[in-house]
Known about the structure:
The chain is mostly helical. The protein has helices at 2-12, 35-50, 57-69, 79-85, 99-102, 105-110, 114-125, 132-149, 154-164, 172-175, 189-197, 202-211, 216-231, 235-241, 247-259; strands at residues 233-234, 264-265. It is globular and about 45 Å long. It starts with a helix and ends with a strand. The mean pLDDT is 97.
Amino acid sequence: xxxxxxxxxxxxxxxxxxxxxxxxxxxxxxxxxxxxxxxxxxxxxxxxxxxxxxxxxxxxxxxxxxxxxxxxxxxxxxxxxxxxxxxxxxxxxxxxxxxxxxxxxxxxxxxxxxxxxxxxxxxxxxxxxxxxxxxxxxxxxxxxxxxxxxxxxxxxxxxxxxxxxxxxxxxxxxxxxxxxxxxxxxxxxxxxxxxxxxxxxxxxxxxxxxxxxxxxxxxxxxxxxxxxxxxxxxxxxxxxxxxxxxxxxxxxxxxxxxxxxxxxxx
Length: 266
C-alpha cells in the first residue's frame, strides 16, 4: 500500500503541471497526500475492520471512505465523488473514473487468491464506480498487485493483462509527447500498468509514470502499488513519504502492515 501512497505524493505536484521526463526530484515543494492516498487508507481500514469476513465489505467501504475522507475536504476530490462522500444516502453513480483504481491497492495485498482479489476489488468499487469500466480498472489493478507479490514475472503479468483486461499496444515512448490528462479508468490504468511493465525498480516505475504526463498523481499511485508488490519499497522512500502523513493516516498504515507484511526493497 505504501507504494501507492508514494506514487500519489510524488505525482501530486505534477497533476496540473506535467513533467514529461524521468529526471526530477521525487519529493519537492508542493507535494502532498491527495484524495488518492486518503481513499487508499479508507479501503485499507475497511479491510481491517472486516477482519477476514468480507460479507459486509461493501458497507464497510462506504462507511470508511466517508469517515476517513470527510476530515480532508481539500485533498482533491472530484465533483461527483465529493457529493457522494459528504452525503449520507447517495448510492453508486455509474462512474468509470480512475478513482476506482487509485484506491484499490489494499485489496491486492490482502487477497489470498486471484479470485479473492477480484471479489474484494468489486466489493469496494461497486459502491461508487459501478460502471463496467470502473470495475474493470480497479480489478485489473488489484489483480496485477496480487500477481506481482506472488512472484509472477513481468512478462506473465503483461500476458495476463492482455488476455483479461487491456491490450497494451503502445510503449511509454510512443505516448510521452501526446498523452493528455484523462480521468477515466480506460485511459489511465493501461498507461499506469505499462509504466510498471517497463520498469527496472520501484523508483524507476514511479519515474516512468510521471514522465508521460496526464493525471500524474493517480497514474503514479496505480503504478506504485504494483511496483511495491513486485520490487518492494526502498526504506528511504518510505521514510520520506510518511512525513506527509498525519497521525491518523500513519496509524492505518501501521495497522495494515502489521497484518499484510510489506516487501522490503533495495
